[in-house]
Amino acid sequence: AFYRFVAFDDVDAAVARLRALTHGLSGSVLVASEGVNGMLAGTPQQIDAFLETASADATVAHAFDGIVVKRTAFERPPFRRMLVKAKKEIVPLGVDGLDMPNRMDDVHATDVPPEQWRELIRRDDVVVLDNRNSFEYGVGRFRDAVDPGVVNFRDFADYVEDHADEWRENGTKIAMYCTGGIRCEKSSPWMQDLGLEVFQLQGGILNYFQQMPDAEQDWDGECFVFDERVSLDTKLRDTGRTREEIDEPR
Q1: In this structure, what are the phi and psi dihedrals at residue 197, rounded to the nearest 5 degrees?
Q2: Residue 148: CB partners within 8 Å, gap ≥ 6?
Q3: How far apart, in whole angstroms, are the C-alpha atoms of residue 204 and residue 16?
């Protein structure tokens, strides 16, 4: 899994090149003028070959050279096909005018490593905000986290705007998290522009599970993932649950 906010001047050219480079893999890659967001599956050798080639490719190297990736080993294929497509945004937030490639210094200033996250979310002056869809919150969440009730991507921004005055007046700090970190990275500079003191879990829930052997101390339930595995436990193990059991919206 990977994402990066970086400018693409020619999105169509990047899509065409990535379609060629991902031949033989499965998963999905989204490309927009603001960056790239993808999940790929294959043998370790195939993944290594893709990353090496993409990092040196004239069309996409600026996005893949030094990109941070999250790797997890699974025995069954998590995807059925390979899809690379152009999008307006690599993750929708419902807020216009965010120049994410030029806001990354602001984003990194809010990062909280997993080992510091546990202490942060237990503070009395902090509200823990789940930056995912409401049904994902229902599958699993950090203990005492708030569900903003997100059904459509604009819902999160509406919730924040509705509570921003109260949080500013009370000096409340916001600690937010999402599955892999990308939604929080996109939300963070916009929330700073609202005058909020905001922090985000570095690398998201999956990184927390990977870095914290006792993550179950802070987490209730499982973590929903948008692939054939459906949900993972705090040890990043496939739970074997079905979409029907979770009742994922279609």
Answers
A1: -95, 105
A2: 129, 130, 131, 134, 155, 156, 159, 160
A3: 29
Look at the chain and count its residues.
Answer: 250
Strand partners, 135: none
Q: Locate tokens 């890659």: which residue?
A: 29
**102: Cβ–Cβ under 8 A, 6 or more apart, which residues?**
none
pLDDT, tens digit, for every residue of 192-204?
Answer: 999 999 999 999 9
Evaluate if pTM is beyond 0.85. yes
Q: What contacts 59, CB < 8 A, 6 or more positions away?
A: 10, 13, 14, 17
3-state secondary structure 5-73: ECCCCCHHHHHHHHHHHCCCCEEEEEEECCEEEEEEECCHHHHHHHHHHHHHCCCCHHHHCCCCECCCC
Q: pLDDT for 139-175, tens place per residue?
A: 999 999 999 999 988 899 999 999 999 999 999 999 9
Residues carrying an active site annotation: 178
- Which helix H or strand E contains 112, and what residues bound it? strand 111-112
Q: What is the dihedral of CA 214, 215, 217, 218, to 10 degrees?
A: 160
